[in-house]
Structures are given as structure tokens and as C-alpha cells.
Amino acid sequence: MPDEVKAGRAGILEHGIAAVLDHWASRRPEDTFAVFDSGEEWNYTELRELVLDTARVLQDAGVRPGDMVVTWLENGPLMIRTWLAVNYLGGVHVPMNTAYRGALLEHALSLAEAKIMVTHADLVGRLDSVDAGGLELVYTLGALERSPERVSLRDSGELCQPRSVDPSAENVRPWDTQMVLYTSGTTGPSKAVLASYRHIGTMALEGNPTSAPEDRALVYTPLYHVTGISGVLWALGTGGSIAVSTRFRTSTFWREVRGLRATFMVLMGSVARFLLNEPVTEDERRTTLRLALITPFNSDAVAFAERVGIDFYTVFNMTEVSVPLRTDLNAKELYSCGRLRPGVSVRIVDENDIEVPVGQVGELLVRTDEPWEMSSGYYRNAEATASSLRNGWFHTGDAVKCDAAGNYFYIDRVKDSIRRRGENMSSYEIEVEVQAHPAILEAAAVAAPSEFGEDEVLVFVVLHDGAELDPVELIEFLRPRMAHFMIPRYIRKVDQLPRTPTQKVQKAELRKIGATDAWDREAAGVVVKRDDIGS
User: Fold this and answer.
1) Are 317 and 400 in contact, with CB atoms under 8 Å apart?
2) Cβ of 185: how many Cβ atoms within 10 Å?
3) Which ranges of 382-530 does DSSP label H, i.e. alpha helix?
4) Alpha helix positions (H), 152-290
5) Which of 126, 306, 313, 369 makes a 20 to 30 Å CA pair with 59?
6) What is the pTM of this model?
């Protein structure tokens, strides 16, 4: 490994954004760091200058080491320069899902306790209906139709003005918090994961072990998810480059890959299936792509790699850890999530943390040899932190098994989770919003199989005595209350929910019942789409 790459990796893991920007601006000043689907392009010298410009404005606005700053943006230049500027100052970056609204948005803002936010004008109106916590100043991208109450607004263009004085860079330590990332809340309200520089940097570098500085990572997954974040940090650690797409579009995917000259990417969830369903185009035949991390490692993954003619591998990861498992290139063990990487220990245990025999399913526990390579806990949630870090191990909540050759296989979440279109969802959060409907006494959300290989949301509802419910009216009730991907496809009315003797809902029984004879939103022609921001 060249000395300059060793120094870049050390910067990401040990010294922080200021040191990394200085390093690459001096070693590779004209090399490309980022190309965007808008046509904008930055080299490493320009990256450093743009980040310092934004950092100066944020510093003048009051951002100090340890302060949290929220970004609520789609992928693009403003998202990246704001994130890196916050870290340059020693601040904590808090990226939020652009689908957040209502109670989910209020919960995230309450946890962050941030005074400053950078967002798109199309999202600002959602702040009117929630308690924005301590939010005081909002920089907005795009024209506002009306101003929200209780906060001061500034145009995000101010963040892009050339500085007259350099900002003061903050020397950070490996254990300092670089960002706070929200979980999907599979066991309750979303938790805020504390991610240190060592933690998130290790994730990025260990997740892409075979890529080289000459590679270009396609960043199309949102930069409030670790997948997109890891692509950016991989480039900063190796001196490579990124190709940034605002969002995934099946119809234009291969044209974007070729146009942005991306060489490797992460294929999450049903993306491989969507692309396999498309006809082969000239852009696909002449693709620049050479490598993909594909998860899950199923028959679609193999078919995709063979059709495109690329190498592939897969990993096990979650926001709280740092890629403890990964496969070799072009592995043969279908449905495997990898083998143990160096520097990590794992156990598979029963409900009492007793290790289970080889081949038996249990919960995956993880710990690392070096400190701070995993999350240090959940912000403002000591109970969840203590629960997840029991007996000296991090409890993933994932059920896995391991064969005699050391290959690990993911089975399911130990507790309930639903994954749709690349988004992990909390059944709890879906149920809270459904039960807010005046006709509904109680609700239970479970996953139903999708023709695209992931999940659809199935909701069982019990009505109040004498109440009636039109499923279409429920969908319209939910549209402004929850993210588009959480809105149920299937709705089934039942007289009562099956329960254990301790009155917990037996979701396994509900999954057995499934969506048969349930009302189907898609069959009824009711369309739910994501919000088009900035259109």
C-alpha cells in the first residue's frame, strides 16, 4: 500500500476531516474527488476550498466542537460540503431521512437537540406541524413558498460564499463522535447511533477491501444511510473518487453509471431484481462497472454479476458495527453473508447468551479487537445502550447460523422488522400512525412477501365497536403522517389480534395468515409515490 494511501486511511480513522483534506489537496491536488449527476465536478483542491468556505459560515453562525448540525437533504454538493464542514469544525453531523414527517420527524429533532439545520425548501413546511426542539436557524436550498414559524431562515447560498478568513480547524480524536445516525427503529422508536471517527471510517474501509484509489464509487443510496456515507469516506481514505447520483432510477441507471464513469457500487435489496427485469442496453454492455457489493447474496445477485460481467462480494453490516463479516470475491456459498474478517470476534447465542452448536440458529454477537471500531451506544438512550452491550458483546438482534467451514448465513431479525425498497422500517412506528385513525382500535404491522424479493407492509386492524373503515380513506389519512415507503400495501380487518398469555401480539401467527384475501392497494389502483424534491 503506498505511503500516501496509508496516510489517508490514518487520517480518516485517527485525525479527522481537516487532516484528510490537507493531505489529499497537497498530494493529489488535480485528481477528481467527486462528479455529480448535475454535471458539477470537484478535484481535491476544490473540495478543500469548498468545505472551508462552508465551515467559515457555520463557524460564524455559532457552530463549535461537539455541536450537532442537522442535514435534511438529498444527495448532492450541498449535502457533502455541509457534512464535511461540520466535521472540519469538530461538530457532529446528523443526517436525517428526507421522508421523515410528523411524529417521526419530531422524534428525530428532539433527539438531536440541534440549533442549526440545512435542508431543502420543499421540506421546510413539515416543520410547522411538529415541535422542532431547539432548532433556531435553517439554511434552505430552493425557493420557499412560505416561512415556517419559530425559526430563522437563511438561503443556503450563504454556505457557498468564498471566505475572507479561514475557519479554525478542530483536531479530533478517534473516539470523538463524527456523526449521529438514526436506526430504522425495528424494536421501537428510532435510536440515534453514536458513530466515532474510528467506527465509521473502519466501516467504510473494511466494506470496500478490494477497491483501489483508481476506482470510483457510485453513491446513489442516500447520504443519511451508512451505505452512501461509506462510499464518501472510502474515497477520502484512499484518494479515490465518487460518482454522486441524486437517487436511483431504473430506467437511467446504466446511462448514469457510464456517464459518471463509476467502477464499483453497492447493490442493496431489490435493486438487482429491478435491473435484471430491464432489457440489456448499449450503456450496460459498455459499462465502466467492474465490482459490486451485492446484498443479499441470492440468485439475483449471481445472475446480475454474470449478466453484467463483473466481480462481486457481500458483507454483513449494520449501523452500529463495522462490517464484521464479508465474503471473498465471487463466493459460491449462496445466501452467505460472509466469513469473519480480521480484528473481529463473533458469537452465535441463545436467549441467555449461551453459544449454540455449529449449524444452529441464534443471535449474532460482535466485538472488535481494537476500541472504538463499533458504536459506543445510543445518544440519550442509556437503557438501549446497556441492553445492546450486554456481557461485553454487542447484540445485533439478527438471527444467523454458521456452517462448519465458517460461512455465516443471515436468517431474520430476532424481533420484527420490515424491509421495503431498501428501507428498514419499524413495525412499531407504522402501528402508531395507523392506530391514530379514529376508526381503529389497534393495529399490527408485519412483512408480507413481495414479488421483488423484499417485503410489503401488511397491516391487521381491529376497529372500534360500530366503526367502519374504507381502506382508501386510511391510505389518504396516512399519506401526510408517514414516509411513503411505510404506507401499507395490504390492509386486513380482523376481530381481534392473536396474543400470548402476557398479552403480546403473536406476529408469527399474523405472518402465517398473510395477505391472502387482504385489501391490496396496488390491485385497487391506489398509487403512493415518494415526494419529488426540488422539481
Assistant:
1) no
2) 19
3) 382-388, 427-434, 471-478, 507-513
4) 197-207, 226-238, 253-260, 271-276, 282-285
5) 126
6) 0.85
